[in-house]
């Protein structure tokens, strides 16, 4: 099974190599298509049937659009456009599209298009794998996420009160085309939904939405024109923290001589939930913990690591934090950490975690001095309430002398903003180590364990460079000490 996985990774990497950076420091950015300022998507499609599913079960919004599209043009078409507002574009991430009926096809190419920076409506373009003939239909599954989506209502509460969040959206799915039939489902973390916008129904239904346990259903609606919008707001109980990572720096350092891959992650964590209406009381908090009720404060995080991970550490701006626990055996490696204090709404907590792992878990050697490194692009805490990441910087530091660096990742291409190879210098380096740096934005923990595959060449001569330099340096030091020791430094006395 491991051999098959490595073989698949190599094939994926070779397929992507033409778009990857090399050690000359070339840079790759997310592709954006420039279009005329008068651009409007051609009405080549219609949405024959559409189901819009919105999940607010975690501290980010996940939306799925399952749509049956039909080519109503006289020519074959392969470009499907999806509109968003400027504010949505800044918080949108992880957009992917695929064929709902054939999972082996896709994901399709998705790219942002630019035509008028002053317009409030911007577009993503989805390229179909092959042009859709006139009159033909295809089912698309489109998934994307919104960060910073909620507003706590009320904005301030006591530390023992329940937290409620509000979310505003349109019950009509974003579309640049006429939609013949559609409905919108909203899923919640609990059935406690005290407030939601009500709309006039249609047909046998007198009023929308229909409430079933933890779900609200708006629709089905009759034909709606392109760009149709109907704003609504829902307010629901959310008893978990609203975790937001504004910045994550993830370093992965590969050592061939040590047979080790070292990981370090530096977090800037914010709680975007309701603020405290009165000063925090440690006594009240201790009393609450005795009864162990639900709390919207963040008090612990769990980091599932690869089996075989070792030497974990947890620090913050003050220093080492001792409130952590690490369990490691043949089946799991789990790092559990507790911040120095519970984190409430509006609070910030920067911290660092790190660990080591055997290189055999991630690194494979091929013929001719080539190597394949397969690591998760994103790990981080795995929480019931989820975690969102605004900016992610991943840096893979390779051995000194590595060349021909290429990479492939299963993170959505639309989320990658920059990729380049730089030189990183540290102890005993001469020419420095190549460091692949990839920047991404608006990711969520649904992308945990998505692959980052890096290939590079590392010759035998490069591998013995550092030992030879260290050996030569030691010889030079001994020779210098021997020469200096033989120098006569006494003053001669004249008789």
UniProtKB/TrEMBL annotation:
Membrane topology: Single-pass type I membrane protein
Keyword field contains Transmembrane: yes
GO biological process terms, semicolon-separated: protein N-linked glycosylation via asparagine
Subcellular localization: Endoplasmic reticulum membrane
A Gene Ontology term for the protein's cellular component: oligosaccharyltransferase complex
InterPro entries the UniProt entry points to: Ribophorin_I (IPR007676)
Family statement drawn from the similarity comment of this UniProt entry: Belongs to the OST1 family.
Protein name: Dolichyl-diphosphooligosaccharide--protein glycosyltransferase subunit 1
Organism expressing this protein natively: Phialemonium atrogriseum
């Amino acid at each position: 099974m491991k051999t098959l996985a490595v073989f698949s990774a190599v094939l994926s990497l070779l397929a992507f190599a033409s778009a990857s950076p090399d050690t000359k420091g070339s840079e790759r950015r997310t592709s954006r298509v420039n279009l005329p300022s008068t651009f409007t998507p051609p009405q080549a499609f219609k949405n024959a049937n559409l189901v819009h599913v919105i999940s607010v079960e975690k501290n980010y919004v996940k939306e799925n659009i399952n749509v049956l599209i039909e080519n109503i043009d006289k020519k074959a078409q392969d470009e499907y456009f999806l509109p968003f507002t400027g504010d949505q574009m800044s918080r949108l991430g992880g957009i992917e599209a695929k064929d709902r009926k054939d999972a082996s096809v896709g994901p399709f190419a998705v790219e942002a298009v630019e035509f008028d920076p002053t317009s409030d409506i911007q577009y993503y373009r989805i390229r179909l794998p092959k042009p859709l003939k006139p009159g033909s239909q295809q089912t698309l599954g489109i998934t994307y996420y919104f960060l910073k989506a909620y507003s706590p209502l009320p904005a301030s509460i006591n530390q023992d009160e329940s937290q409620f969040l509000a979310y505003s959206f349109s019950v009509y799915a974003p579309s640049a085309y006429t939609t013949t039939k559609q409905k919108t489902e909203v899923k919640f973390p609990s059935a406690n939904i005290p407030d939601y916008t009500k709309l006039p129904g249609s047909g046998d239904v007198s009023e929308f939405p229909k409430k079933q346990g933890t779900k609200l259903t708006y629709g089905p609606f009759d034909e709606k024109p392109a760009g149709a919008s109907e704003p609504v707001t829902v307010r629901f109980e959310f008893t978990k923290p609203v975790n937001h990572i504004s910045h994550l720096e993830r370093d992965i350092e590969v050592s061939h001589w040590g047979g080790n891959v070292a990981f370090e992650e530096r977090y800037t964590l914010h709680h975007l939930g309701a603020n405290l209406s009165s000063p925090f009381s440690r006594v009240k908090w201790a009393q609450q913990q005795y009864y162990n009720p639900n709390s919207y404060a963040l008090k612990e995080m769990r980091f599932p690591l690869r089996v075989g991970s070792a030497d974990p550490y947890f620090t913050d701006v003050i220093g080492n934090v001792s409130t952590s626990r690490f369990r490691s055996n043949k089946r799991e490696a789990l790092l559990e950490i507790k911040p120095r204090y519970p984190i409430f709404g509006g609070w910030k907590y920067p911290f660092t975690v790190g660990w080591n792992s055997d290189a055999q878990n991630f690194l494979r050697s091929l013929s001719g001095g080539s190597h394949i490194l397969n690591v998760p692009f994103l790990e981080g805490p795995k929480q019931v309430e989820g975690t969102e990441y605004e900016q992610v910087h991943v840096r893979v530091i390779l051995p000194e002398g590595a060349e021909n660096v290429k990479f492939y990742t299963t993170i959505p291409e639309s989320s990658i903003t920059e990729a380049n190879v730089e030189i990183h210098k540290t102890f005993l380096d001469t020419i420095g180590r190549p460091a692949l740096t990839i920047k991404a934005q608006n990711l969520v923990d649904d992308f945990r364990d998505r692959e980052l595959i890096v290939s590079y060449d590392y010759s035998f001569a490069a591998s013995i460079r550092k030992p030879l330099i260290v050996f030569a340096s030691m010889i030079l030091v001994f020779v210098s000490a021997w020469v200096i020791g033989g120098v006569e430094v006494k003053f001669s006395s004249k008789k």
